[in-house]
Design brief:
436 residues, alpha+beta, Arp2/3 complex 21 kDa subunit ARPC3, Heat Shock Protein 90, five-stranded mixed beta sheet, two-component regulatory system, transmembrane helix, ATP binding, kinase, His_kinase_dom
């Protein structure tokens, strides 16, 4: 009989998760700590109402919603569930009501204290963490059971039925916590995947629009620039200075348009076997003068060779953008270091600066068109770099601390005989992270 009751409780505690997943996944209400607390509170309330009574105690899973709400909804949600539990316990009454109150507060204490650390773990470890934390209420209830049995004079030693109840209770409770935690993680993963898909669709649309506009604008700009260059040969004095400024700005506009086109369709024109070490060495030498001008010390640790088949100019463009961003984010007297590590299968490039750093929200938006942390800029350079690295089968990971600096890690596969080609349908997944 106890098994049937406890399995019913498992279904009850899964109901809030299923409601959030199926009905309120896209609604703001589904993310509200108050609403999450009320949902799990009702589940805990129902567990107590349909509890199995034996040995003067109520056998139920009221604390699983408490643990889940603390972990996935926050402390506010957990406190709301605790209020529901205490209310239901008062309604049930009985001789052990004081023990029920003590048990509820003890069961909620540990999840309350460590709930903030829960989101520092990756998804798989969060499920394991939730399961391990599910043991805590079981231990609390076991302690309360032994205390009540001792005070009420219920024989514990040699009581096989009570021992079986404890084993069944603990086993099904751990199962319930594990299933509920896994459902929550699937819900989170599904939401993140949807956000990535929407982000990808927007980027593809913007890319097509950018390519169309760029093609239309670049032609008249080229004509205007050509005529101005002819005029410059015939003009002297103040007007010559004006023409220099105009030509400079036209050149800048041309660069932006080319970035748009590269973002829309980065094509690898000349595929050749290149040494990543040589490309990085060329880039650091090229940018060293710029770093000195900005008062930044640029150093490179490039000891190993790593070969891959790709477009040298595109890879160089990606490295220039990333390292130049690091220099521009670093204040005078700061440092930017470029390191290369080569394994059997990949080249790992690390660009570390001592600049202003970025918040988690800013990191999550890296690669989004028009997003930049610079006063002047379009954000296209970073977007193009990410597209190029991805087209080569590589990945970029950003980690940053505000006012401390940023570390950019680039993983490039040493693909040997495989030629890296751009695929227009390649997914725009720039970060490997997020809670972001």
């Amino acid at each position: 009989m106890i098994i049937e009751k406890l399995l019913l409780h498992v279904l009850i505690i899964l109901a809030p998760v299923l409601i959030q997943t199926s009905l309120l996944e896209n609604h703001r209400l589904g993310k509200s700590p108050v609403f999450i607390g009320v949902l799990h509170g009702i589940a805990a309330f129902m567990c107590l109402i349909f509890a199995y009574e034996s040995f003067g105690l109520y056998w139920d899973f009221r604390y699983i919603p408490l643990v889940l709400s603390m972990l996935y909804g926050g402390r506010k949600a957990g406190v709301i569930v605790l209020v529901f539990i205490l209310t239901a316990r008062v309604i049930n009454g009985g001789d052990a009501i004081i023990f029920g109150f003590v048990s509820a507060f003890l069961a909620g204490t540990l999840p309350f204290l460590i709930s903030n650390r829960f989101w520092t773990f990756p998804p798989k470890k969060r499920v394991t963490f939730a399961v391990l934390l599910g043991f805590w209420p079981a231990l609390v209830m076991l302690g309360i059971l032994l205390s009540f049995a001792f005070i009420a004079g219920v024989p514990v030693s040699g009581n096989k039925e009570m021992g079986i109840y404890v084993l069944i209770f603990g086993g099904i409770q751990v199962l319930g916590v594990g299933v509920a935690a896994q459902l929550n993680e699937w819900m989170i993963e599904k939401r993140l995947l949807r956000e990535e898909i929407l982000k990808s669709e927007k980027l593809n649309t913007l890319g097509e629009l950018a390519a169309s506009i760029a093609h239309e604008v670049r032609n008249p700009l080229t004509v205007v620039k050509g005529f101005l260059q002819l005029m410059k040969k015939q003009v002297t004095g103040t007007h010559d200075e004006y023409l220099k400024i105009v030509l400079s700005e036209l050149g800048r506009a041309e660069e932006i348009i080319n970035d748009y086109l590269n973002f829309a369709k980065p094509e690898f024109e000349k595929i050749e076997k290149i040494n990543v070490k040589e490309v990085l060495s060329d880039v650091t030498v090229l940018l060293n003068a710029y770093a000195l001008k900005e008062g930044v010390y640029l150093e490179a640790d490039l000891k190993e060779d790593g070969f891959l088949l790709t477009d040298r100019n595109k890879l160089k463009q990606a490295f220039v953008n990333i390292i130049k961003n690091a220099i521009e984010a670093t204040p005078p007297q700061g440092n930017v270091s470029v390191n290369l590590e080569v394994t059997h299968t990949q080249a790992i490039i690390t660009v570390e600066d001592t600049g202003k750093g970025m918040t988690k929200d800013q990191i999550s938006r890296i690669g989004t068109l028009f997003f930049t942390t610079k006063v002047q800029g379009t954000g296209l350079g970073t977007s193009v770099s990410l597209r190029i690295i991805e087209a080569m089968g590589g990945h970029i990971h950003y980690s940053s601390i505000v006012n401390k600096g940023t570390v950019v890690t680039i993983d490039l596969p040493l693909n040997g005989d495989k030629v890296a080609k751009f695929d227009s349908n390649f997914p725009n997944t720039y970060m490997n992270n997020p809670n972001a």
